[in-house]
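DM from R.C. (forwarded with permission)

"hey, sorry to bug you on a friday — could you get me a structure for this? deadline for the figure draft is monday and I only need the backbone to look sensible"
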Amino acid sequence: MIRIPGCIPIHGKDLLDPVQARKNEAYKWILHHAKRYALAEGVMVNSFMELEPGAIKSLQVEEPGKPRIYPVGPLVNMGSTRKVDGSGSECLTWLDGQPHGSVLFVSFGSGGTLSYDQINELALGLEMSEQRFLWVVRSPNDKVANANYFSVQSQKDPFDFLPKGFLERTKGRGLVVPSWAPQAEVLSHGSTVMLTEDIKVALRAKPSENGLVKREEIAKVSKALLEGEEGKKLRNQMKDLKDAAERNLSEDGASTKALSELAFKWNNTK
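My reply, with the result:
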């Protein structure tokens, strides 16, 4: 286990791939730049105390050679104009027609890539759950976990790898879009539920012995999130974090004050 001050312990296998391969040039690049953080006068962090109290408190402990930390978050890009075949407006239009708090947003980030088998289990698990969902799906890859950082999704048939008949069977309660969705707008929509880890707003799906998260487990967790008592508690916690985020960004909020302090220092060092 890797123990980082202020953070929950993590397994080495959960680190980024380049960090695990110490002979890789990418590892050397990351290590070189990580060491350079100590040369900075200060570091802005896109977070806030209520979201990551342990990590921020640890980072704010004063030590020789340690730069000052300025939590200024949450800063979210709400003004993106990027469009991919109209999928952005399609997502929001579809969400407008769904009941409040009823849609599970399924996304694995800009470069997150699943294997063919895991894509199949995820699709069938979402179908079995009978829950509404918006899934930003990317082409599977059985070799590289971050393959989508370096590839462009085919526009001929972006869903040809999904289980046969899946789109037809889930039509109406599920929307699948290729590669990209307007994430900030989707997550702020009243019909979605956001899941993250380490802040008590997530349920972890348990993998099987071969490493796959099976369809039955995906269906169970999806139902628990949107219908069960556990899901209700998580949504209440998310609401508390949302309120805390708004307080931090208010005129007298901690993030606003941190940003003002930093701007004042910049102005006086010219």
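R.C.: lifesaver. The first strand starts at residue 42 and ends at 45.
me: no worries. Residues 229-248 form the longest helix (20 residues).
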